[in-house]
Amino acid sequence: MKTLTLSVADTIVDKTLEKGRELKLAPLTVIVLDAGGQTKVIKRDDGSSLLRPEIAMGKAWGTLGMGFGGRDLARRAAKAPAFFGALSDMSGGRMVPVPGGVLIQSDAGDILGAVGVTGDTSENDEACAVYGIRSANLTPDTGD
Protein backbone atom coordinates (compact mmCIF):
# COMPACT_ATOMS: atom_id res chain seq x y z
CA MET A 1 0.00 0.00 0.00
CA LYS A 2 1.52 3.30 -1.07
CA THR A 3 -1.35 5.57 -0.06
CA LEU A 4 -3.75 5.62 2.82
CA THR A 5 -7.25 4.81 1.60
CA LEU A 6 -10.45 6.11 3.13
CA SER A 7 -11.45 2.58 4.05
CA VAL A 8 -8.21 1.99 5.95
CA ALA A 9 -8.45 5.40 7.65
CA ASP A 10 -12.00 4.55 8.74
CA THR A 11 -10.79 1.27 10.22
CA ILE A 12 -8.04 3.03 12.15
CA VAL A 13 -10.43 5.60 13.61
CA ASP A 14 -13.16 3.10 14.45
CA LYS A 15 -10.77 0.67 16.12
CA THR A 16 -9.09 3.51 18.04
CA LEU A 17 -12.45 4.65 19.41
CA GLU A 18 -13.44 1.05 20.12
CA LYS A 19 -10.30 0.57 22.23
CA GLY A 20 -11.01 3.74 24.18
CA ARG A 21 -14.52 2.54 25.00
CA GLU A 22 -13.23 -0.92 25.94
CA LEU A 23 -10.77 0.69 28.38
CA LYS A 24 -13.52 3.01 29.67
CA LEU A 25 -11.47 6.11 28.86
CA ALA A 26 -12.78 9.65 28.65
CA PRO A 27 -14.45 10.49 25.30
CA LEU A 28 -11.83 10.47 22.53
CA THR A 29 -11.40 12.47 19.36
CA VAL A 30 -9.41 10.81 16.57
CA ILE A 31 -8.07 12.20 13.32
CA VAL A 32 -6.21 10.47 10.50
CA LEU A 33 -4.11 12.54 8.12
CA ASP A 34 -2.68 11.27 4.84
CA ALA A 35 1.02 11.65 4.00
CA GLY A 36 0.35 15.14 2.61
CA GLY A 37 -1.19 16.31 5.89
CA GLN A 38 -4.77 16.33 4.62
CA THR A 39 -7.62 15.04 6.76
CA LYS A 40 -8.91 11.62 5.75
CA VAL A 41 -11.23 11.00 8.73
CA ILE A 42 -12.08 12.69 12.00
CA LYS A 43 -14.52 11.38 14.57
CA ARG A 44 -15.45 12.55 18.06
CA ASP A 45 -16.96 10.42 20.78
CA ASP A 46 -20.15 11.80 22.28
CA GLY A 47 -19.12 14.10 25.10
CA SER A 48 -15.80 15.19 23.57
CA SER A 49 -14.94 18.72 24.57
CA LEU A 50 -14.71 21.74 22.30
CA LEU A 51 -10.97 21.90 21.47
CA ARG A 52 -10.41 18.18 20.98
CA PRO A 53 -10.37 18.26 17.14
CA GLU A 54 -7.65 20.92 17.16
CA ILE A 55 -5.59 19.01 19.73
CA ALA A 56 -5.89 15.74 17.79
CA MET A 57 -4.91 17.58 14.60
CA GLY A 58 -1.89 19.15 16.34
CA LYS A 59 -0.67 15.79 17.58
CA ALA A 60 -0.97 14.16 14.14
CA TRP A 61 0.27 17.18 12.18
CA GLY A 62 3.35 17.64 14.38
CA THR A 63 4.47 14.03 13.98
CA LEU A 64 3.88 14.09 10.26
CA GLY A 65 5.58 17.45 9.83
CA MET A 66 8.70 16.40 11.72
CA GLY A 67 8.76 12.76 10.60
CA PHE A 68 8.86 11.08 14.01
CA GLY A 69 6.36 9.93 16.62
CA GLY A 70 4.87 11.97 19.43
CA ARG A 71 7.09 10.53 22.17
CA ASP A 72 10.24 11.59 20.31
CA LEU A 73 8.64 14.93 19.51
CA ALA A 74 7.92 15.48 23.24
CA ARG A 75 11.49 14.56 24.23
CA ARG A 76 12.95 16.90 21.65
CA ALA A 77 10.60 19.73 22.66
CA ALA A 78 11.68 19.36 26.29
CA LYS A 79 15.35 19.59 25.29
CA ALA A 80 14.96 22.47 22.84
CA PRO A 81 11.99 24.62 23.90
CA ALA A 82 13.16 27.68 21.95
CA PHE A 83 13.36 25.66 18.73
CA PHE A 84 9.92 24.15 19.28
CA GLY A 85 8.55 27.59 20.13
CA ALA A 86 9.84 28.74 16.75
CA LEU A 87 8.32 25.67 15.07
CA SER A 88 5.02 26.46 16.71
CA ASP A 89 5.21 30.02 15.39
CA MET A 90 6.16 28.84 11.89
CA SER A 91 3.32 26.33 11.83
CA GLY A 92 0.69 28.75 13.07
CA GLY A 93 0.50 26.92 16.40
CA ARG A 94 -0.44 23.64 14.75
CA MET A 95 2.05 21.40 16.60
CA VAL A 96 1.19 19.59 19.84
CA PRO A 97 4.41 17.76 20.82
CA VAL A 98 3.10 15.06 23.17
CA PRO A 99 2.31 11.34 22.96
CA GLY A 100 -0.92 10.61 21.13
CA GLY A 101 0.47 11.56 17.73
CA VAL A 102 1.50 8.38 15.91
CA LEU A 103 2.92 7.95 12.42
CA ILE A 104 1.33 5.31 10.18
CA GLN A 105 3.91 3.28 8.30
CA SER A 106 3.75 0.55 5.69
CA ASP A 107 5.59 -2.72 6.23
CA ALA A 108 8.38 -1.24 4.08
CA GLY A 109 8.69 1.75 6.44
CA ASP A 110 7.03 4.31 4.17
CA ILE A 111 5.10 7.02 6.03
CA LEU A 112 1.47 6.81 4.90
CA GLY A 113 0.06 9.38 7.32
CA ALA A 114 -0.50 10.02 11.00
CA VAL A 115 -3.09 9.57 13.72
CA GLY A 116 -3.84 12.08 16.47
CA VAL A 117 -5.86 11.06 19.51
CA THR A 118 -6.95 13.19 22.45
CA GLY A 119 -9.37 13.02 25.33
CA ASP A 120 -7.68 10.95 28.01
CA THR A 121 -4.06 10.91 29.17
CA SER A 122 -1.52 11.19 26.37
CA GLU A 123 -0.31 7.65 27.12
CA ASN A 124 -3.83 6.23 26.87
CA ASP A 125 -4.50 8.25 23.72
CA GLU A 126 -1.34 6.78 22.19
CA ALA A 127 -2.22 3.21 23.19
CA CYS A 128 -5.57 3.52 21.43
CA ALA A 129 -3.92 4.94 18.28
CA VAL A 130 -1.42 2.08 18.23
CA TYR A 131 -4.28 -0.42 18.51
CA GLY A 132 -6.15 1.26 15.67
CA ILE A 133 -3.14 1.29 13.35
CA ARG A 134 -2.26 -2.33 14.09
CA SER A 135 -5.91 -3.31 13.51
CA ALA A 136 -5.48 -2.00 9.96
CA ASN A 137 -2.38 -4.20 9.52
CA LEU A 138 -0.06 -1.21 9.44
CA THR A 139 2.89 -0.21 11.61
CA PRO A 140 2.65 2.51 14.26
CA ASP A 141 5.61 4.74 15.06
CA THR A 142 5.19 6.37 18.47
CA GLY A 143 8.71 7.74 18.61
CA ASP A 144 9.97 5.13 21.07
Please characterize this protein's 3D structure:
With 144 residues, this protein is an alpha+beta fold. It is built from 5 helices and 5 strands; from the N terminus they run αββαααββαβ. It has helices at residues 6-22, 52-66, 70-79, 81-90, 122-135, and strands at residues 29-34, 39-44, 101-105, 111-118, 139-141. Strands 2-1-4-3-5 form a 5-stranded antiparallel sheet. The longest helix is centred in the first third of the chain and has 17 residues, at 6-22. The radius of gyration is 14 Å and the shape is globular. It starts with 5 loop residues before the first helix and ends with a strand. The relative contact order is 0.24. The mean pLDDT is 95.
Set out the fold topology.
Layout: H1 6-22, E1 29-34, E2 39-44, H2 52-66, H3 70-79, H4 81-90, E3 101-105, E4 111-118, H5 122-135, E5 139-141
Antiparallel strand pairs: 1-2, 1-4, 3-4, 3-5
Helix pairs in contact: 1-5, 3-4
Kindly state the number of beta strands: 5
Please state the structural category.
Answer: alpha+beta
Shape: globular
Mean pLDDT: 95
Please work out how many helical segments DSSP would assign.
Answer: 5
Oligomer kind: single chain
One letter per element, helices H and strands E, the order comes to HEEHHHEEHE
Largest sheet: 5 strands, antiparallel
Strand order of the largest sheet: 2-1-4-3-5
- Kindly estimate the percentage of residues that lie in beta strands according to DSSP: 15-25%
Instruction: Quote the distance from N terminus to C terminus.
Output: 24 Å
CA radius of gyration is: 14 Å
Model regions low in confidence, pLDDT < 50 over at least 5 residues: none
Portion of residues within helices: 40-55%
